[in-house]
Amino acid sequence: MKVSVLLTALFLGSMLAGAPVQAASMSGMSMPSAAAAPPSATEKAYITRVAHVLLAKYPTVASARAAGYFKMTGIMGGTAIYFDHRFSGITPLHPNFLWYSRQGRLVGLDYEYPQSRYPKPPVSRFPIGAARWTVVHQHAHIAYRLPNGTVHLRGIRAYPNLRLGKITPAELTADKVLPTGAALIWAYFHPTCWDLGFWLVPNPKGAFADLNPLVP
Q: pTM here?
C-alpha cells in the first residue's frame, strides 16, 4: 500500500476520533485519483530502471534493516512500510520509505520531502508527472512494548508537544497515547511532506495505483 494513502488514513482517522489510531488492515481501501492513472512511457522506463537497482539492493527486509531502515507499520493493504530515519539525502536510488510484502519482499517505495524545506514538490528531480505527487500531513509514530511482551506500532496525532526535539515517554503519557506500564521503543514526528510513491513490482492496476492485487 502506498505510504501516502496509509499515513493520510491514519491522520484523518486520528483527527476524526481525537485519539490515537491503532494500525489495522485496510486491504479493501481504494482511493482512485488522477494521480493513479497508468504510467506514461517515460514513467515506465524510469520505474523499470529504479526497480532493477532497488530490487537487487534491498530485496528483503533483512537487507533493508542492514541499510538502516526500520519497520514503521504492521501489514496494511498487503505491505509493511520501512523508514530510514530521515527526511534528507533522498535520491532516486535511495528512497526514505520502502514497502515490503507480508512475505518480506520489496514491492514498492516512497520519496518524501518536508514542505518546510520544499515549498513546492521537487518535480524536477524525477521524470514523473507532477500530478503524481500527493501530500502526507503531519503526525507522529510510536512503537511500544506492553508488560506481556507484545509490541505495538501506532500512528498518532501530531500533538504540539511532539513537534520539536526528542519525543519522551512523559510527553506521550501526558497526551494519553502511551498505555500504563508500556515501555517506549521509539517515537518520531513526521512533518507534512510531499510524497511520490509507486510499485516496483508488476501491478495490473498500474505502478501508481494505491493497491496491488498481486501483493495480497
A: 0.86
6 pLDDT tier (thresholds 50, 70, 90): low
Strands in 70-71's sheet, in edge-to-edge order, are 70-71, 79-83, 97-101, 106-114, 193-199, 134-136
* Bridge partners, 21 (sequence order): 155
3-state SS track over 8-42: HHHHHHHHHHCCCEECCCCCCCCCCCHHHCCCCHH
pLDDT tens-place string over residues 154-174? 999 999 999 988 999 999 999
**Cβ-based burial of 120 (10 A; exposed 0-12, middle 13-18, buried ≥19):** exposed
CA neighbor of 139 nearest in space, from 31, 1, 3: 3
Residue 144 grid coordinates: 511500544
